[in-house]
Task: inverse folding
């Protein structure tokens, strides 16, 4: 089992939930911010851009306030509880948007598998910068319309998870030529689904209507259904499972209209290699997609034809050392996540930490 901190966030208002998070994780949030502050500067120096991070963060907060003001209230509570400026919390939650504005190159990212059927299950690798390996935690959150459980980074309200209605979300970043900072951050969109969606249809509706300015694909998983909702400044699209019930996602658009603005795949075609390898692997898999089967499918390295399970090199500068920080399996029927600290190649029966979405 992982030794990760489990934050149990409570509060009957958004501000109180935020204050609870800020008090419990204030020091960790400050440490995470120092790394992100350096990462933003490093990326900007490499691209020749000079983004005004506080201004960009506040711009995304304004967009969020117009869409879901309670999320801004919760971030304000985090800032108050942690004793840090509000714009810092907003910047952490908008880290994807700010990195897009700064011109961040991406090398490696997340891979997701879902199989629909009588009992739909799925999971993913979460890949991110090795320097941020200590900057995430497990969490349960109560007090919103739906209690939920999942993993997230310090200071970010949510990322991957499942709620008490059995609505799960998995998360892969995409890249579009129009990506920037200014819309609702994609991490806050995931938070809104987890905290409010009572059904598959509600989750898809929230996602499809979110006014984002950076791209991602959020895969909604319930006990009997699944779909990927691709989000981009150019619009949204719903991608359904193939005729065998599989959804395989890496880091490029599958919808043809959004793929016309593809940025990530053009810069780093390894996303296509991962997608091709995983598609071939699931063709040979006939059984259910339990945790053991999931890690067997995801445990692929460069010698296998694509680096799905990512390992950081010993040397390298901040921004260039990617690693699979966590492996997550979701079982919506049980409202449960299993989390392994690290890549799938090191996962085993004793390494999973279970999390169940709390109810009212």
Result:
């Amino acid at each position: 089992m992982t030794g990760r901190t489990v934050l149990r966030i409570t509060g009957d208002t958004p501000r109180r939930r935020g204050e609870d998070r800020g008090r419990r994780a204030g020091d960790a949030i400050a440490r995470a911010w120092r790394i992100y502050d350096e990462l933003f500067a490093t990326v900007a120096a490499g691209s020749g851009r000079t983004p005004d991070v506080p201004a960009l963060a506040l711009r995304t907060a304004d967009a969020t306030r117009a869409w879901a003001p309670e999320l801004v209230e919760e971030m304000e509570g985090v800032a108050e509880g942690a004793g840090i400026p509000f714009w810092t919390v907003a910047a952490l939650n908008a880290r994807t948007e700010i990195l897009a504005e700064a011109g961040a190159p991406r090398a490696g990212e997340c891979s997701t598998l879902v199989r629909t059927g009588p009992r739909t299950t799925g999971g993913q690798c979460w890949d991110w910068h090795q320097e941020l390996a200590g900057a995430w935690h497990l969490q349960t959150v109560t007090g919103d319309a739906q209690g939920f459980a999942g993993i997230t980074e310090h200071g970010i309200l949510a990322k991957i998870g499942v709620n008490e209605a059995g609505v799960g979300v998995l998360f892969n970043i995409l890249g579009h030529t129009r990506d920037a900072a200014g819309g609702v951050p994609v991490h806050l969109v995931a938070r809104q689904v987890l905290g409010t969606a009572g059904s598959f249809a509600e989750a898809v509706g929230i996602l499809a209507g979110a006014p984002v300015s950076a791209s991602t694909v959020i895969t909604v998983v319930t006990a009997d259904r699944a779909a990927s909702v691709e989000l981009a400044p150019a619009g949204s699209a719903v991608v359904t499972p193939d005729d065998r019930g599989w959804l395989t996602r890496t880091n490029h658009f599958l919808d043809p209209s959004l793929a016309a603005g593809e940025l990530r795949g053009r810069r780093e075609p390894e996303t296509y290699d991962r997608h091709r390898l995983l598609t071939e692997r699931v063709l040979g898999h006939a059984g259910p997609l339990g945790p053991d089967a999931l890690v067997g499918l995801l445990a692929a390295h460069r010698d296998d034809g694509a680096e799905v399970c990512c390992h950081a090199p010993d040397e390298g500068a901040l921004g260039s050392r990617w690693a699979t920080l966590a492996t997550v399996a979701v079982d919506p029927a049980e409202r449960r996540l299993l989390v392994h600290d690290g890549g799938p190649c090191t996962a085993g029966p004793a390494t999973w930490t279970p999390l169940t979405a709390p109810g009212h």
The first strand starts at residue 6 and ends at 9. The longest helix spans residues 14-47.
